[in-house]
Structures are given as C-alpha cells and as structure tokens.
Amino acid sequence: AQTVTQSQPEMSVQEAETVTLSCTYDTSENNYYLFWYKQPPSRQMILVIRQEAYKQQNATENRFSVNFQKAAKSFSLKISDSQLGDTAMYFCAFMMTGANNLFFGTGTRLTVIP
Amino acid sequence: NAGVTQTPKFQVLKTGQSMTLQCAQDMNHNSMYWYRQDPGMGLRLIYYSASEGTTDKGEVPNGYNVSRLNKREFSLRLESAAPSQTSVYFCASSEWRGGRSEQFFGPGTRLTVL
Prior knowledge:
The structure holds 2 protein chains of 2 kinds.
Chain A: E1 3-5, E2 10-14, E3 19-21, E4 24-26, E5 32-39, E6 46-52, E7 60-61, E8 64-69, E9 74-79, E10 88-96, E11 103-104, E12 108-113
Parallel strand pairs in A: 2-12
Antiparallel strand pairs in A: 1-4, 3-9, 5-6, 5-10, 7-8, 8-9, 10-11, 10-12
Chain B: E1 4-7, E2 10-13, E3 19-25, E4 31-37, E5 43-49, E6 56-57, E7 65-68, E8 74-78, E9 87-94, E10 96-97, E11 100-101, E12 104-105, E13 109-113
Parallel strand pairs in B: 2-13
Antiparallel strand pairs in B: 1-3, 3-8, 4-5, 4-9, 5-6, 7-8, 9-12, 9-13, 10-11
C-alpha cells in the first residue's frame, strides 16, 4: 500500500518570505506521479504542481517549486515570495502510473502573516 | 464550462436516514471519484468509476453505494446514515491524456449526521 506522510501539521511564514513544506512517501513502485494540492478556506481543491517520477528535473510553476529526491522518497514544496492568498491547507498526493486514485497526506496548514 | 459540480453543498441528516449526493462533470472525462475528508486527515477514496458502466471500491467503501448513471454523472448513496459518516465529501473526475492525468475536484458537500 502507498502511504504519504506530511510531518508538519501547521506552518507560518511572513509575507514575501520563502517557506518549504515537507512530504515523504512509501512505495515499491518505480513509476508514479506526485502532486501538491492547495485547499483554501473555500474548500476547493486546486492542483499546485505535479512531478513525474521518471523526470529528474524538479517541477516549477511560477513561485512554486519542488525538491524531488526519489531515492529518499521525499517531495517538498517551496513557495517563494509568499502572498496572503497562499494561506491554505496543502496536501501532498501520490498516484501510480496508469492508476486512477490518489493517496493523500494529512495536510499542512500554512498561514501567511502580513 | 462548470467543471465538476456537486449538490447539495450542505446537508444534515438524522441517524438511519438515507440520501444521495449528486455529482456531474462537463469535461467529458472517463473517470470519476468520491472522496471523504475528515478533520486531521487527507482525502480518502470511497469509490471510483474508471469508465461508464464500471465502479470499484476504494479505501473506505463501507456504508456507501455508488451509481455511474452516464458518462457525466456519478452519485453516492448513504442507505442508513451513521454519525461516523459526518464528513466533507468531494467528487472528482480525470482523464489520461498525453501520458498525464489530473483530477479536477468539485466544491464539496458538508454532511452532518446527528
């Protein structure tokens, strides 16, 4: 079974600063996908960034980037130039290649302080 | 293009009552999902439908039934609600295209069982 662990239940960051959210996962698969989802107070789940395990290059989407360490089974999210709108729950998720379902971590509540 | 829609947004039931949560997507996706989100936990898969006419159990299927009415619609039924089913329920849909898949989520239904 796949498990996803987020060891930081809550974090805070000053506006305009950088913050890193941690995620580790456990799998025996070699091909898979990793995701970070954002859930603001509206409850809507929004995809922030994805990483294909076969790609060595870390994914980047504007202010969001990941540090993917396949051997260590680690997938952290870095948010640069934090904005008030980044305040949300962030979930790390795993999906096997060709599968349909996502396995989620328990989430990290991020607060951006003005 | 509404994406994934869910009805109702909120519902309160008494123990033993039944109800159906409705979900529809207008993105012509083959796969649809039902998740539940409990406090302090990530989303957990209840049931999914890889394509029209098929359904499969996820991680927490007990107490639920589903129907894939057509390609657009995927409903979740609670036959005899229990307080343990108090949760936020999310519907999602996805499609594999070009070797990539992304799940799109509805806004969620907050269900309280008294």
